[in-house]
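// run 5 | inverse folding | seed 20
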């Protein structure tokens, strides 16, 4: 990738890390000082607290205590093992468990954005790749790349790396990296499908015949399969991570009530009780539908492989959620849509600038809200 684009994205990402970190720290300070009896803590502790909330506690428990599974109750088996394993490894070097989680995200998130821009430059020109990198860096839920103790940054880094290796013709390394990625999140079918279709498409575009080697991407699900084998050995149930989704508090039970999004319509359209919650759920639904609307344009501009990947990586969680909550964050994994959006906005500079401005402002607000312990995704 040309150095000008690389430097620009690097500066933007560095600025975002600092600005979002400051916003999350301010949010944590406000939350902590709601109780006047809380002790005085150092500024760096506010920073760590700002990026540790909600699902972070599950990763902490897995890293320190291992997995537990109680049928019918919320259990840690819902969270895949790669991220907590890395937390445990970093913690052994000295930082505490929360600092370790934040450090991993601070490393993986910026690297994912930089690598994404390199991947985009492989498929298009420098200017469009730069626009795509800016769109992704300023996407409101990219706060999960800038410090939040969640696994999204790690997963996206690995998946982007896998597709970049595939574009460069390195099939074996691409499959290996993808297999590691599928141990981080339960979306292995999307990764396998995307890599396989893209590999076959890549060979066809070069006028080369397919061979058995080209079907190696089916092995990308080995990380996913290894976790299922662990669950089978440890708890006697290889799909325990699916079953706990229906536990009280999560209540993502497969069935028509979930598939038809009855809960979303009740809480957003028919009988909203909390305007803030209704707005939040509506925003997640909007971004989900926007990503799905970009599947066909992605097919036209980037090919069937990336369209299949986006459809699966967005469609699987969208189908299984009862109210779209969390989808804004999950869409970070649908990285090709940011390049598609940049291509569509090439001739619409005012719209692009507006999207970047609104995204950047929302990014700071959501970072503060996350630090203040509001449920944003």
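// decoded
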């Amino acid at each position: 990738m040309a150095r000008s684009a690389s430097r620009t994205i690097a500066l933007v990402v560095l600025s975002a890390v600092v600005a979002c970190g400051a916003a999350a720290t301010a949010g944590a300070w406000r939350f902590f000082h709601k109780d006047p009896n809380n002790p005085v803590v150092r500024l760096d502790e506010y920073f760590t607290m700002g990026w540790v909330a909600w699902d972070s506690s599950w990763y902490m428990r897995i890293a320190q205590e291992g997995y537990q599974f109680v049928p019918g109750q919320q259990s840690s088996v819902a969270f895949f093992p790669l991220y907590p394993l890395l937390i445990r490894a970093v913690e052994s070097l000295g930082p505490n468990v929360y600092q370790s989680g934040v450090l991993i995200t601070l490393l993986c998130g910026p690297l994912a954005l930089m690598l994404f821009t390199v991947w985009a430059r492989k498929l298009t020109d420098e200017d469009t790749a730069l626009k795509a990198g800016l769109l992704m860096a300023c996407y409101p839920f990219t706060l999960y790349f800038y410090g939040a103790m969640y696994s999204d940054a790690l997963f996206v880094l690995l998946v982007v790396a896998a597709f970049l290796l595939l574009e460069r013709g390195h099939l074996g390394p691409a499959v290996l990296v993808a297999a590691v990625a599928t141990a981080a999140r339960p979306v292995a079918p999307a990764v396998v499908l995307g890599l396989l279709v893209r590999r076959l498409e890549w060979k066809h575009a070069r006028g080369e015949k397919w061979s058995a080697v080209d079907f190696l991407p089916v092995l990308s699900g080995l990380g996913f399969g290894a976790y299922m084998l662990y669950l089978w050995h440890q708890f006697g149930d290889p799909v325990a991570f699916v079953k706990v989704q229906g536990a009280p508090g999560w209540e993502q039970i497969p069935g028509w009530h979930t598939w038809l999004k009855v809960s979303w319509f009740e809480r957003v359209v028919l009988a909203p009780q909390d305007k803030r919650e209704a707005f939040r759920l509506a925003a997640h639904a909007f971004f989900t539908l926007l990503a799905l609307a970009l599947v066909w344009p992605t097919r036209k501009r980037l090919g069937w492989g990336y369209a299949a990947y986006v459809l699966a990586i967005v469609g699987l969680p969208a189908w299984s959620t009862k109210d779209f909550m969390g989808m804004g964050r999950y869409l970070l994994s649908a990285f090709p849509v940011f390049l598609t959006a940049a291509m569509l906005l090439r001739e619409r500079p005012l719209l692009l600038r507006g999207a970047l401005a609104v995204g950047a402002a929302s990014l700071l607000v959501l970072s503060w809200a996350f630090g203040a312990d509001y449920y944003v995704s």
